[in-house]
Amino acid sequence: MNDSVTSSMLRALPAAHRQRLLELARQVSFEAGSRLFEEGGRADRFWIVRTGTVALDMRVPGRRAAVIETLGHNQLVGWSWLFAPHTWHLGAEATTPVRAHEFEAAAVRALCGSDPAFGMAVTQWVGDVLAHRLRAARTRLLDLYAPYGSGSGSRV
Asked: Which segments constitute the Cyclic nucleotide-binding domain (predicted)?
């Protein structure tokens, strides 16, 4: 499990913004093995994991999908909903039974547009998550496919 500092809504959003966001949530469950979304699909919602784990994966031609990161408690699943063209850049699968807060992207984007302070806080939170995920994806792909792995001394 990765450090939740970069993706925990509880740490990233001020209490008032966190409460406003949670007012838009509905509770959902996924069985282990359920696909939350597929790479290239329409990103119209996102989740914050309450319990369980979700694997983010990326299609690799001629190979099995590569797991980029595993997410758990209080972590954001999905960032593509915030940025046009609102299509998933990765896939996601529940690796254990998952309970989560689910948010409709259009409602959250509308709230972001109507309240600039809220919108800035959410955008900063999701941007921080995105930056962390890009670093994790790079490291994971180097580990999987580079001749010598990512190694602490590699300079790419």
From this structure: 9-78
Question: Cα(59)–Cα(126) distance, rounded to whole angstroms?
Answer: 23
Taking the C-alpha atoms of residue 93 and residue 104, their distance in angstroms, rounded to an integer, is 19
Sheet harboring 98-104: ordered strands across? 26-30, 98-104, 45-51, 76-77
Spatial contact of 97 and 49, defined as CB atoms under 8 Å apart:
no
Helix (H, G, I), strand (E, B) or coil at 79: coil
| Distance, CA of 147 to CA of 36 (rounded, Å) | 32
Question: Is this model's pTM higher than 0.85 or not?
Answer: no
- In order, the DSSP letters of 3-15 are -TTTTBHHHHS-H
> Alpha-carbon distance 39 to 89, whole Å?
5
* Token digits of residue 154: 């590699």
Residue where the block lists tokens 């329409």: 42
pLDDT digits 0-9 by tens, 84-122: 999 999 999 999 999 999 999 999 999 999 999 999 999
**Long-range residue pairs from 150-156, CB within 8 A, at least 24 positions apart, any chain:** none
Asked if 3 and 47 touch (Cβ cutoff 8 Å), the reply is no
